[in-house]
UniProtKB/TrEMBL annotation, chains A, B:
Annotated keywords: DNA-binding, Transcription, Transcription regulation
Pfam families for the chain: TetR_N (PF00440)
The organism's place on the tree of life at top rank: Bacteria
DNA-binding region, residues: 27-46
Cited InterPro entries: Homeodomain-like_sf (IPR009057), HTH_TetR (IPR001647), Tet_transcr_reg_TetR-rel_C_sf (IPR036271)
Domain HTH tetR-type: 4-64
GO molecular function: DNA binding
Protein's UniProt name: TetR/AcrR family transcriptional regulator
Amino acid sequence: MTSDDVRTRIIATADDLYNARGIQSVGMDELRTAAGVSLKKLYQEFPSKSSIVMAVLERWHASWTEGLDARVRQADAPRDRLLAMFDYLAEWFGQDSFRGCGFINSFAELGAVSPDVAEYARKHKESFQVYVGHLAADAGAPSDLAPQLSILAEGAQTTAAIAGTSDAAGHARRAAEVLVDAALMRPSRRAG
Amino acid sequence: MTSDDVRTRIIATADDLYNARGIQSVGMDELRTAAGVSLKKLYQEFPSKSSIVMAVLERWHASWTEGLDARVRQADAPRDRLLAMFDYLAEWFGQDSFRGCGFINSFAELGAVSPDVAEYARKHKESFQVYVGHLAADAGAPSDLAPQLSILAEGAQTTAAIAGTSDAAGHARRAAEVLVDAALMRPSRRAG
DNA sequence: CAGCGTATAGAACGATCGTTCTCAAAACAA
DNA sequence: TTGTTTTGAGAACGATCGTTCTATACGCTG
C-alpha cells in the first residue's frame, strides 16, 4: 500500500468521524482503529492531530467548493445560477450524514483556542462570499446582494443542523428569490 | 455568603469562560479558580459539569430572550418591531465579548455527544422562530416571512462570529427590509 | 538457513480531564 | 475550655488525551 493510500484513508476516516461527532470528541486511538492504521504509521504521515484537522478542513473546503460550482454550472441564466446554491444546500441537508457546516462547527469548537482553525474557517467563508459576488456581478446585481445571499446560506446551514430538518433550504431559497428579483428590479412572485 | 450567591457567581463565571473559549476547553479547575470557589463547594452546588453547562444555557436563553424583547418593545410600528431584532444583533455583535451564538457553538461542540445540549439548542432556536412568527403575524405578513427572517438572523450570527466584523447585522437588516416590504406589499426602497 | 533492517501492534508516558477524598482549620455548642 | 461539626484547600483517583517507545514479527539478502 502506498503512502498516498494511507494518507487518503486517514483523512477520509477523520472526515467522517469529525463531521459526525466533532473534533475534540474523536481521539487519535479511535481514528487509528477506524482507519485500520497503526499508530506509528499515523504519526508517520501526520506530525500531530492538528495537522490532520487542517487536512480535513482542506478536504471539506475542496469538496464544498467543487460541489457548489458543479451545481451552479448546471444552470445557465444568471438568476438561476444565483439561486442554484440553495438547491445545492437542499441536497446537502438531505444527506443522513449532514450535521451542519464543518467550518461553522470547527470554528465554534476550536476557533477560540486554535488560530489556524479560526483563520481557515474565515478564509473559507470569505471565498464563498467572493464566489457569490461573482455570480451576483454576472447577473448585474448591486454589490449588496452577495453578502445578503451569503448570510441566507449560512443561516440555512445552522438552522438545518440544529432543527434537524431540511426545510431551511426551501425557506432560504424563496427569500433569495425575493432578494434577487428586487435587486434585478423584476416583479417578485409572491405566494398569495 | 448565601448559597444563591455562590451559584450565581459560578454560573456567571462559567458564562464568561464558556462563551470566550468554548465548553470543552474550560476545565472544572479553571472554573473553580476563576469563580473563587472551592472544588467541594462547586460540586456541592452542581452535581456535574454537564449540569453547569445546562445552567449556563438557561442563562443564555433568558438573557437573549429578554434583551431581544426589550429591544422590540422600543419600536411601535409592526414593521419596525420586525426589524428591531437586527438592531439588537448589531448591538450584540459590537460587544468585545461577542464570539457567536452560544447555542450554535454549544450545538457544534456537544450536539452530537450530548442529547441534552442538542435538545436545548433546538428548543431555543424554535422559541426564537415562534417569537418572530408572532411579530410577523402582528404585521399581517404571510407565514413564510418568519422562517426567512429567522434564517437571516442565524446567518448574521455565524457570519459575524467567523468574519470577526459586525457588518453582517447591517447586511441582514437591509435584506430583511426587502423581505418585509415584499411580504407587506410595500414598495421596497432600494439603494440605487 | 543465518543474519540484518524494517514495520508493526500496542504498552507506556506525561498531562489533563471530571470527580472524590483527606485532613487540617474554623465555627459552634455546652 | 473542650468536644463536635462544618468548611476549606488541594492532593489524589481513574480515565482518557495526544504522543512516543519498545519489543516482536516479518521480509529481504547471502
